[in-house]
Design brief:
- The protein has 362 residues and is of the alpha+beta class.
- It is built from nine helices and eleven strands.
- The strands form two sheets. It has an eight-stranded mixed beta sheet with strand order 2-3-1-5-4-9-10-11, sandwiched between helices.
Length: 362
């Protein structure tokens, strides 16, 4: 289908939505909100379509003046100047429209569940997991997002064996979704007297936080176990069975939660994490049915895939999926320059989608 055909369909759909909203049954607020959202989103595309078509119409009119041998010479000269500017603007308008027409990831606007786990490397890996978590906390601050720790297993020296947090705000998942995978660090540990560089790793998983309407979980699909919460070294921090372990029987997914003193609160938090993992599980099943060629361009989000290396001696961060190296390690870990990596990954993903969309088989 040509770009013009796609644009015609968008304009027609926008008109249909205007009619539907005019006669919509206000007794179904969810449907009205859905139609209003689609109308608003398409309105931005239609505005750009009109700008493109106006530019093309103006170009056609100016071409007639230039080709008219009886036209005033000064008028033809002005037309040639104007047509050059317009012709330069058309490709940018077309590219912008192509990006706007790319299929939307319905999860992009959702909040996210962030899970970070120390990998190989012992205490150094746990310290690195702590550094990554602080990076995302600082990044969230720059976006005015809210970070809530849901569960954690701290090492006591500033690191984490595991930390799970909820991040809420505007377009959280769309900005963090490329962070899933294995992050590797190369640095000299403070405890290393010989100055040798150690390599350790941490695993990051970013899951879109699902609402109850997104995932329907039947009570008979769950096995809920309660036990006594414990602190580092197995020391009891609670005298009641407030910790909760929920197993989703059909998938085998297990979630534990013990940060709260209330069993009810721990169960509620565990269900939030479980819904997010089940929602991501369903998304991965759908993705697996699609061609993997495009997704492999920027990574599949597989937690076993090494995506990034943080090299302290050289002060650099390298994202292996797009072969991008930035000598801004401190600023990235402070959350200030993380947007540069996120923007580059987003652009690469969009380029891959456009290439797939423009292919003969598309």
């Amino acid at each position: 289908m040509s770009l013009d055909d796609k644009l015609d369909r968008v304009v027609e759909r926008h008109k249909q939505l205007a009619d539907l909203l005019g006669s919509a049954d206000r007794s179904d607020p969810q449907e009205y909100v859905r139609l209003s959202k689609e109308y608003s989103e398409l309105g931005q595309v239609v505005e750009k379509v009109l700008a493109l078509r106006s530019a093309n119409d103006e170009i056609a009119g100016l071409e007639e003046i230039i080709e008219d041998g009886e036209a005033d010479a000064e008028m033809r000269e002005l037309a040639e100047l104007e047509i050059e500017e317009l012709r330069e603007s058309v490709p940018a308008l077309e590219q912008s429209l192509k990006l706007m027409l790319l299929p939307k990831d319905e999860a992009d606007t959702k909040n996210a569940i962030l899970e970070i786990r120390a990998g190989t490397g012992g205490d150094e890996a746990a310290l690195f997991a702590g550094s990554l978590f602080r990076m995302y906390q600082r990044y969230a601050e720059t976006k005015n997002w809210k970070v809530e720790v849901m569960d954690s297993n701290a090492t006591g020296i500033g690191g984490y064996k595991e930390v799970i947090a909820s991040i809420s705000g505007q377009d959280v998942f769309s900005r963090l979704k490329y962070e899933s995978g294995v992050h590797r660090v190369q640095r000299v540990p403070e405890t290393e007297s010989s100055g040798r560089i150690h390599t350790s790793a941490a695993t990051v998983a970013v899951l879109p936080e699902a609402e109850e309407v997104d995932i329907d979980i039947a009570e008979n699909e769950l096995r809920v176990d309660t036990y006594r919460a414990s602190g580092p070294g197995g020391q009891s921090v609670n005298t009641t069975d407030s910790a909760v372990r929920i197993t989703h029987i059909p998938t085998g997914i297990v979630v534990t939660q013990q940060d709260e003193k209330s069993q009810h609160k721990n169960r509620a938090k565990a269900m939030r994490v479980l819904r997010a993992r089940l929602y991501e599980h369903e998304r991965q099943l759908i993705d697996a049915e699609r061609a993997a060629s495009r997704r492999s361009q920027v990574g599949t989000g597989d937690r076993s895939e090494r995506i990034r290396t943080y090299n302290f001696p050289q002060g650099r961060v390298t994202d292996h999926r797009i072969n991008l190296t930035l000598h801004k390690l401190d600023r990235i870990l402070d959350g200030e320059a993380l947007d540069e990596l996120v923007d580059a990954l987003t652009t690469e993903d969009q380029a891959a989608q456009l290439a797939e969309d423009d292919s003969p088989d598309a």
